[in-house]
Amino acid sequence: MNKTVLVVEDEENLIEVLKYNLEREGYNVLTAVDGEQGLEVARTSRPDLVVLDIMLPKLDGLEVCRILRRESNVPILMLTAKGEEVDRVVGLELGADDYVTKPFSIRELMARLKAMLRRSRMASEISSASPEVLRSGDLEVDRAGHSVHLGGVSIDLKPREFELLALLVENRGRVLTRGQILDRLWGHDYVGDERTVDVHIRWLRNRIEKDPGRPERIVTVRGVGYRFEV
Asked: In this structure, are 154 and 211 located in the same domain?
């Protein structure tokens, strides 16, 4: 079955160029011209990937990214204008998987898009081959039900936070480097900064640690990475 790509972009000419090239590559293409419409289409059509511009009418791309990431794990490729370093970093911290800076070549965008879809498929295959329920003390991570319970109390995690916690618990007692975490969750061809791992670790600690400032479950191994304590 052909993959469906949602393009959320307010520049008509760019929409037409992207639609033409994506369809030529065999993708089904949905489009939206503002953030609110993009959210609506994403929720009703459940695309396999979202190409999302940062500068959008009604609801900007960063807010759309934040909401989408809270609701699903759909791969998000952000389009940023040249020089928008801050927006790009914020976008990645909000959960975007990759970005392309305008002006960009269609060839580059297609390569990034294909790599993201490949990573998404591989992550799904790895998850399906792993134990459905992971336990460590009073922490339970249910992959099939996509739920987390700590001391019997349900904890609501964003999709990427959930994936990170499952990876850490599955490898409890072992040190995982930032590079290893990026490879497993973002893919080996991810071009972003390793800081995104630190950001997600910080968010996760805020949810499962008694004292996030002095973590007992997710500990930092200085100069190496992180370890989930048994």
From this structure: yes
